[in-house]
UniProtKB/TrEMBL annotation:
Residue ranges crossing the lipid bilayer per the database entry: 6-27
Annotated Polar residues bias: 355-369
Organism per entry: Streptomyces clavifer
Stated family: Belongs to the band 7/mec-2 family.
Descriptive protein name: Regulator of protease activity HflC (Stomatin/prohibitin superfamily)
Keyword Cell division: no
Pfam families, per the entry: Band_7 (PF01145)
Ranges for region Disordered: 253-369
PANTHER family for this protein: AT06885P-RELATED, BAND 7 PROTEIN-RELATED
A GO biological-process term: proteolysis
Compositional bias (Acidic residues): 296-311
Annotated Band domain residues: 22-180
C-alpha cells in the first residue's frame, strides 16, 4: 500500500516537472511574445522574462523589437531627364506593434524589402539626375514616406531611408567632368577680369596722383630699376619716355628735307648699276694733234671732198663719227661696275711744255665741206 502511494507521488512529481518544462518560456529584453491559443490571438502580449503557456494549446511567437538595418538591392532606372542610373539604398525600421507584425503580414521583413525596391524605382523616375546627386535629403524623405505608408498597417515603423550610391555610365561621367571643368574655367576668368578691373582703377588713381607731381614718375622709375637690379641680372632694361620720342619726331618733321649726296652710280630695279651717259663729242678733250694744229691723219689740206662724200647739192654734212673704243673694250668714261666714278684723263706735260691728256681717245672727224 505504501509502495503504491510512493509510486503515485513520484509519477505526479515527474508529470509536474514535464509540464513545467513544456510550459515554461523565456522572452528576452528586446523581444515581445505573442500567444496564439487554439489558433486565436491572445489579448495579452508576453513581456520580457519568464512566462508560462499551456502546452499543446498555446503557441508563443517571439517578435524582435530592435531596429533592423536592411540593404536595398541596386535598382536600374531612367531619370526624368532620360539618364540611365543604378541606385542602391539602405533602410532602417523596427516593429512597434508585435501582434500586427504577426497577424497582418506573413513576413514583414520581406514585405518591407519589396516595398523599398519598388519605391526606390518610383523615386528614380520622378527625379532628375541633379536631384539624385545634390538633393538627396529631399529624396530620402520622399522615399521614407512612400515606404512608411503601407508599413504602418504591418506594425512596422520606418525609421530612416538613405540612398547609398548612384552609379552613372562612363560617357555621362566624362560629360559631367567637362561641364565641371568649363564651369571652373568660367569662374576663374570672371575672377581674373574682376581683378583686372580693380587693378585698372587703382592704376588710374595712381596715374592721376603722379600727374600732379612729375618727380613722382622719376622716383617710380628709380624704384623699378632698383627692383630689377636686386635680382642679379646681367641685363638691365631702362624704359624710354614716349614723350621724348614724340618730341624728336616733331623736330624731324619741322626740319627741311636734305638731298642725299651721290656717292656712286645709281642702281636699277634689278640691283644692277645704271649706265652713265657719255659726254658729247664737242666736250671731249682735244688730242695732241689738234693742240698742235695739225690736220688729222688721212686728210690733206686743200683736198676737196669726193662725190661719194656729198649726198647732193646743198645736203648738210654728215654727222661726224668718232673712233671710240671697241664695244668689247671698256671705255674710261663708262661707269665702273663696282660703283666707282669714271676716270677722267689727267693732263701731263710733254716735251717743250706741251700738255697732253693721257688715256684720251683720238678721233678722226670727216673732212668738212
Amino acid at each position: 500500500m505504501v509502495e503504491d502511494v510512493v509510486i503515485a507521488a513520484v509519477a505526479a512529481v515527474s508529470g509536474c516537472a514535464v509540464y513545467a518544462m513544456a510550459a515554461a518560456r523565456v522572452v528576452k529584453q528586446y523581444e515581445r511574445g505573442v500567444v496564439l491559443r487554439l489558433g486565436r490571438l491572445h489579448h495579452q502580449v508576453r513581456a520580457p522574462g519568464f512566462t508560462m503557456i499551456v502546452p499543446g494549446i498555446d503557441r508563443l511567437r517571439k517578435v524582435n523589437m530592435q531596429i533592423v538595418t536592411m540593404p536595398v538591392p541596386a535598382q536600374d532606372g531612367i531619370t526624368r531627364d532620360n539618364v540611365t542610373v543604378r541606385v542602391d539604398a539602405v533602410i532602417y525600421f523596427k516593429v512597434v506593434d508585435a501582434p500586427s507584425a504577426v497577424i497582418e503580414v506573413e513576413d514583414y521583413r520581406f514585405a518591407v524589402s519589396q516595398m523599398a525596391q519598388t519605391s526606390l524605382r518610383s523615386i528614380i523616375g520622378k527625379s532628375d539626375l541633379d536631384d539624385l546627386l545634390s538633393n538627396r535629403e529631399k529624396l530620402n524623405q520622399g522615399l521614407e514616406l512612400m515606404i512608411d505608408s503601407p508599413a504602418v498597417g504591418w506594425g512596422v515603423q520606418i525609421d530612416r531611408v538613405e540612398i547609398k550610391d548612384v552609379s552613372l555610365p562612363e560617357t555621362m561621367k566624362r560629360s559631367m567632368a567637362r561641364q565641371a571643368e568649363a564651369d571652373r574655367e568660367r569662374r576663374a576668368r570672371v575672377i581674373n577680369a574682376d581683378a583686372e578691373l580693380q587693378a585698372s582703377k587703382k592704376l588710374a588713381q595712381a596715374a592721376q596722383e603722379m600727374s600732379s607731381q612729375p618727380a613722382a614718375l622719376q622716383l617710380r622709375l628709380l624704384q623699378t630699376v632698383v627692383a630689377v637690379a636686386a635680382e642679379k641680372n646681367s641685363t638691365l632694361v631702362l624704359p624710354f619716355p614716349v614723350e621724348l620720342l614724340r618730341f624728336l619726331e616733331r623736330a624731324h618733321q619741322d626740319s627741311p628735307p636734305q638731298v642725299p649726296a651721290e656717292t656712286g652710280p645709281s642702281r636699277g630695279a634689278a640691283g644692277q648699276p645704271e649706265r652713265m651717259e657719255k659726254p658729247p663729242f664737242d666736250e671731249r678733250p682735244p688730242t695732241r694733234a689738234q693742240q698742235r694744229g695739225e690736220p688729222p691723219e688721212g686728210d690733206l689740206p686743200g683736198e676737196e671732198p669726193s662725190g661719194e662724200e656729198l649726198s647732193g647739192e646743198g645736203a648738210p654734212p654728215e654727222e661726224p663719227q668718232r673712233a671710240g673704243p671697241s664695244p668689247y673694250e671698256p671705255s674710261p668714261y663708262d661707269p665702273s661696275p663696282y660703283g666707282d666714278e669714271p676716270k677722267r684723263p689727267e693732263p701731263s706735260h710733254g716735251p717743250e711744255g706741251e700738255q697732253s691728256y693721257s688715256g684720251a681717245h683720238t678721233t678722226k672727224p670727216l673732212t668738212p665741206h
